[in-house]
Amino acid sequence: MGATAGIELKRTALFDVHKAAGAKMVAFGGWEMPVEYSGITKEHLAVRTGAGLFDVSHMGEIEVRGPEALALLQHVTSNDVSRIEIHQAQYTALMAPAGSAVDDCVIHRLDEKHYFICVNAANTEKDFDWIVKHNAMGAEVRNVSSGYSQLAIQGPKAAKIVARVSDADLAGIRYYRFLRARCCGVDGLLARTGYTGEDGFEFYFPPEESEHVWNALLEAGRPEGLIPAGLGARNTLRLEAAYPLYGHELDEETTLLEAGLGWICKFDKGEFIGRDALKAEREQGLRKKLIGFEMADRSIGRDGYSVLIGGRKVGRVTSGSPAPFLRKNIGLAFVPPQLAELNREIEIEIRGKPAPARQVTLPFYRRSQAA
Amino acid sequence: MYPQELLYTKEHEWIRVDEEIGTIGITDHAQKELGDVVFVELPRAGDHVAVNEPLGTVESVKAVSDVFSPVTGEIKDVNAKLQDHPELLNNDPHGEGWMVQVRLADRRETEKLMTADEYETYVREAQKH
User: Which of chain B's termini has less CB crowding within 10 Å, N or C?
Assistant: First the structure.
């Protein structure tokens, strides 16, 4: 734990605010970020039952615009960018030739020929270079990460809280839609997106307004029990919702099909990087498959542990943790496809000893009603 | 903030010595670093533990951590409450959250451990880096 010697960590505009709030800070993706404030369990439950506020300003932002913007994005991503309307967002992946993800990301269509991509912090430079490298079309590509703070307010009470501090018509912003809106007196992009499995918003705005927006949102949400939440809860929340995390379920050795992201592979949209590899794998069969598991006892199968069937090592856990809302110990793992079978018993090797577990349906958690 | 009657290790365990019996747990600093404790794995009464060898495991939501024995001896008792209430390690690490009692094989082993004041300085120094 603690600072990593020799590596210069970046800090968001809210670093001092987090420290003053008593947050425990950790290195994540090249940034020094709050992992928890009042405790992961408490923060996790606040998001499931009320609301939580996350500083996710470490995330990167890349803009692509111009007459060739669509052609460039269709070439470098797997989903069909032509299907999104202005003020609509889309989950997709920046693709490598092997059918794997350079990164997973969310594309927002700002205007007719103007897109705004939210990417993973640690991958921002890599993503930007990758897009530029494939930009034979001549679209305008800019890394605008330093121009944005990003706060995520998530939970069933999030909309009620945001309604108090924004004049935007929130009912008009459906899931994966966004607007240019004023929130806490600050102009930015207000998107109905998130990484927790709950309803909520992500607000992109100028970094110099960070402290004001952070404090104003916490103040507005006090009656609903809004509390600051860190990357620890963000991880357990996304795991319950079975959202992939780059570097865990996704990397350059794993294809989108193997990671269960076939739904963002739009083969009928035309050529894109990695399309041939994905088509071939679809026809020849997967090399591995992502499964969900639940521990049968109180032991916890964590990232990197081996999956055993019949005493033989058959796979690896990519993410595993206690699930604070479900009150179970859950995880995601890759296994050979012929061994992926609902309810099939497996074992997780924990400190040299096999612990019983069972394959279960994904996601582990699904909120009861959509926004 | 660290009780004077306890002795402390560099791995953030504490021990309270009464005659030949040592009661062992993890420090307040350790529980803060771990965060919410959700599972504690303990040895059984009668097991033998050796100095600086793992005697148990503490799992929090975020991490798993070995607990090392500050002394050599035989496990006399374990805190059975931790099975259903692992949060005792967070709420009262130096009291109700005790983990095991050991019958000491060699009391001189405790002479190398830190006093409360020494441990407090040690934690403060470690946090600067």
Answer: C
CB distance from B127 to chain A under 8 Å? yes
Reported in sequence order, the residue ranges of B5-127 that DSSP labels E, i.e. its strands, are 7-8, 13-18, 21-26, 37-41, 48-49, 54-60, 64-68, 73-78, 100-104
Tell me the two tokens of residue A85.
């309307």
Q: Answer for the pair A120, A101: CB distance below 8 angstroms, yes or no.
A: no
Fold of domain B7-106+114-128: OB fold (Dihydrolipoamide Acetyltransferase, E2P) (2.40.50)
Judged by CB atoms closer than 8 Å, whether chains meet at A40 and B38 is answered as no
Closest CA to A127 of A111, A144, A112: A144
Task: Give the gap in angstroms from C-alpha B30 to the nearest C-alpha of chain A.
Answer: 11
* Number of structural domains found in chain A: 3
Q: Which of B36, B59, B64 sits opposite A40 (nearest CB)?
A: B36
My answer on whether A174 and A311 are in the same domain is no
The answer to whether residue A204 is domain-embedded is yes
Q: Three-class SS of residue A210? A: helix
In a domain, A45, yes or no: yes
Tens of pLDDT, residues A236-261: 999 999 999 999 999 999 999 999 99
**Statement to judge: residues A93 and A126 lie in one domain:** yes
Scanning B7-46 for CB atoms below 8 A from A yields 32-33, 35-36, 38-39
Do residues A231 and A303 share a domain?
Answer: no
Cα–chain center distance at A78:
17
- pTM confidence score: 0.95
The domain in which residue A173 lies consists of: 15-57+148-240
Query: CA-CA distance, A295 to B16, in Å (whole number)?
Result: 36
Please state the ipTM of this predicted complex: 0.89
Which among A2, A3, A36 is the nearest to B35, CB-wise? A36
* Residue pLDDT, tens place only, A30-51: 999 999 999 999 999 999 999 9
